[in-house]
Automatic annotation (TrEMBL):
This is Predicted RNA methylase. Residues 46-124 form the Methyltransferase domain. InterPro entries: Arg_MeTrfase, Methyltransf_25, SAM-dependent_MTases_sf. One of its GO terms (molecular function) is protein-arginine N-methyltransferase activity. GO terms for biological process: methylation.
């Protein structure tokens, strides 16, 4: 029983029906398909860590010579083998039951696919799994490291006013939002502020943290923060473009709402470990109003200096472009 509970705690056990539903996520599926097609060259050797239904190993197998698909969940192992057998080049994929935190392929590889992604890099073990893999791979095979899909993640935090009433029931709880739809319950009170840029091929800390200030751009009741995670699945150097995928936004309610006005500054501080439970952010979160009413000229200059690529899109949406 201990191993089962450990799997649930680590976020490494996701029910089969959830994986089936992910096949319906058009943005996710097309993004990974395009990124894998770009990164995997003909004849390549590929490793997928956390294979689920095997769909990304299938994408890789269309060009790769060999794909190692690693999955821990026995139910998903069976599903992946069954589904891959019904698809072209599925015979190139070897589905292996193993813990991604400890598995190494028997030979050097060219590309690693790892989609253990959750907004904020919370719950799922993207950060520790890739970090562990890099250390063990270099020790066994030496350099260079393979390419990674995704290549990087960018994280941002945004102050918002959120409606937590549901059919008359007030419930200030963590909420998830579709990043590709307008959020009618949320009003943006400031631009998203980037607090982390993580390149998976480079050394990185296991800690996600920020201690900074955000300029309030609208009057309102600051009662929540929106966490945004944009994943750069692949970078196309020839076109100077990226293939991106946003995981769902997460809205974290504040313990005490703060009345804010345009021009105010809000201090935000938090620190949590990658892969920690969702409440790890709220447990360390400190938000306070540190100044009121920046002079109009100073406010205008600060607003002009902000990069447009980090502004919300459209009206009540947030995006890291």
């Amino acid at each position: 029983m201990q191993n089962k509970f450990e799997s649930l705690e680590l976020g490494q056990f996701i029910p089969l029906h959830y994986h089936h539903n992910m096949l319906n996520d058009t943005a996710r599926m097309q993004g990974f398909k395009d990124a894998i097609d770009l990164a995997v060259k003909p004849g390549a050797k590929v490793l997928e860590l956390g294979g689920g239904t095997g769909v990304q190993s299938f994408f890789a197998a269309q060009k790769a010579q060999k794909v190692y698909c690693v999955e821990r969940n026995p139910e998903l192992i069976s599903a992946a083998r069954n589904l891959l057998a019904q698809n072209s080049n599925g015979d190139k994929v070897e589905v292996i039951q193993a813990d991604a935190m400890h598995y190494l392929p028997p030979e050097p590889i060219d590309v690693v696919i790892c989609e253990m992604l959750h907004t904020g890099l919370l719950r799922e073990k993207q950060m520790p799994v890739i970090d562990s893999f890099k250390q063990r791979y270099l020790k066994k095979f030496g350099g260079p490291l393979p390419a990674f899909i995704p290549e990087a993640s960018i994280q941002a935090i945004q102050p918002i006013q959120h409606d937590f009433h549901f059919a008359g029931f007030y419930a200030p709880t963590i909420q998830f939002q579709n990043p590709y739809a307008t959020q009618e319950r949320s009003t943006s009170l400031g631009d998203p502020e980037v607090f982390q840029l993580l390149a998976y091929a480079e050394p990185y800390s296991q800690t996600c943290q920020w201690d900074g200030e955000i300029l309030i751009t609208e009057d309102g009741q600051l009662n929540a923060l929106r966490l945004i995670t944009k994943n750069l699945l692949a970078i196309n150097m020839s076109t100077c473009s990226t293939i991106d995928w946003h995981t769902q936004y997460i809205v974290f309610p504040l313990a005490e709402p703060i009345k804010v006005s345009r021009g105010d500054q809000v201090s935000i501080r938090f620190s949590y470990q990658g892969g920690a439970p969702l409440n790890a952010l709220t447990d360390s979160l400190q938000v306070r109003l540190i100044s009121k009413q920046t002079p109009v000229l100073e406010f205008a200059m600060e607003a002009m200096n902000r990069s447009a690529e980090f502004r919300p899109r459209p009206a009540e949406n947030a995006s890291i472009r």
